[in-house]
Amino acid sequence: MKEEKNSALLTQSVTRALAILSCFTDEQPEVRVMDVAKKLNLTQSNVSRLLTTMVSLGFVEKDEFSGFYRLGPEIIALGGIALNHYEIRKQALPELHHLEQRLGLGVNLAILNNRKIFYLAHVDSHKSPRMYTLIGRSNPLYCTAIGKVLLAHMEEDQAVSCLREQKLHAYTDNTVTDEAQLLGELALVRKRGYATEAEELALGRACVACPVRGRAGRVIAGISLSGPVTEVDLPNRTEELSRILIEVTDRISMKMGYITAGGYR
Q1: What backbone phi and psi angles, to 5 degrees, belong to 263?
Q2: Fewer C-beta within 10 Å: the chain N or C terminus?
């Protein structure tokens, strides 16, 4: 009985420690004990004790001047291990760098995770490098080009379920929030083999995306070219950019084992 009790307490501590890690976000990269306690409905003493343990293990760091906590180097190490485990990322990275050098646009690789797109790789345009990384971040499916690619290659009932489970928030005046209109656009994406997005998620930005397939032919990821609307220039460059991107995603799909009835594509 004592061993069972100790095991339950240990499990509870692990669960709470993981919940604390989930409190760190892009919007709130640093937290205080009182903030975590309030968010998780725990006592400040419990949170303080857990954070102290996590600091000693390197998963969290404490700023002694401000008293705020931030994620530690062990989290970065684990993130690197996780990223290096993705075969799609290893196969795609050389192609992503080549695309950026050739076109001068940003290039993104993302997969489906928790009904959002999840960035596994990003190569900034040398013309406008970012001060932060997209890797590990998520974005909605319905208003991003990669998201539309992933939605378009789901079973229709699954795509509808994804759309209905998310609040179709209008990020800009260009964001499509009508389900019927979105489904019509997804049908077009399947037909032509690529998706576009112009200022639907953020003003001044546009992108083109194509799917990457795995061994069984299922779409396992999407790759996009992105940048300022003036650089992407969808009205004049969609055909050019989509053609180049389809060639690249076909090569990556081949490396991931995708075989058609007529052979590799």
Answers
A1: 115, -160
A2: N
